[in-house]
Amino acid sequence: MENIIVKDFVTSVQNSPEAEDLFGNLTDDFITVVKKNGIIDLIPILKWVVKPQEAIQDLCNLRFCKKLYRFLYFTSRYSKKQITDFFDEYASANHENGYESMLLVLDRLDNYNKVGVLTNLLKAKLDGHLTIDNFVRLTSSLQIVPYVDLKYLSDYLNSISVRHDTYMLLSAGLLYQSGIGVDGVGRDDSSQYKLNDNGLLFVRYGLGVDVSSYVKDEAPVRPLTEEEIQESWKKVSKT
Questions:
Q1: Could you say which DSSP state residue 225 is in?
Q2: For residue range 15-66, what is the model confidence (pLDDT) as tens digits?
Q3: Based on the number of CB atoms within 10 Å of its own CB, is 168 exposed (0-12), middle (13-18) or buried (19 or more)?
Q4: 177 has which bridge partners?
Q5: How far apart are CA 55 and CA 28, in angstroms?
Q6: What's the rounded Cα separation, in Å, for the pair 43 and 222?
Q7: In the chain, what are the domain boundaries?
Q8: What is the pLDDT of residues 166-209, one digit of tens each?
Q9: DSSP state for residue 54 in the 8-state scheme
Q10: Claim: this prediction has a pTM higher than 0.85
């Protein structure tokens, strides 16, 4: 049996184009706006916002509701058919209920501002710039990277050395090792990293950054042979 919250989310997403003007009234006191405008019948997922805390324990907390409201404000700009077609494709890619999958993505976003990145990626998918597989991968990366590190991602349009944000961006599948480094032994503090294909799509469509300066390396970094490693250590030991 379909969860009532998921069922309400399906109805709300499909009806959101009809409530575009009402979503435009979003403020920090959005609960009051919801009550005054009386849009719960049209957007039933919002009834979980105005119920007492004990009645919405499965919805987590107010932060989730704010993320949900922002997401619905975005979907209100598209037609019901566009949104329905997307969720059908999303369900096919994930082999599970597409609406439920999106609720889980929203729940896992650890920063309200990440919803803006998510909707940027969704816009790119709806406008034909991303495949559904691209979208799934990039939303997974968005869940992993701390919001504070997103502002550094465009730095990797060019190869740069390891620093404080590198490992999180690397673990999210957005970078690749583009250079060994000056000491020649592949130590972490000397390696170079750069945006891979996923990272480039994330920066361009998720963050809206101009990527025209990006130059893709013609060949990946070749791993050092055992002989080269030994020779490099000899050079280092002499300094």
A1: P
A2: 777 666 666 555 555 556 666 656 666 777 766 655 544 444 444 567 787 8
A3: middle
A4: 193
A5: 22
A6: 55
A7: 4-78, 149-238
A8: 999 999 999 998 887 545 444 555 688 999 999 999 999 999 99
A9: G
A10: no
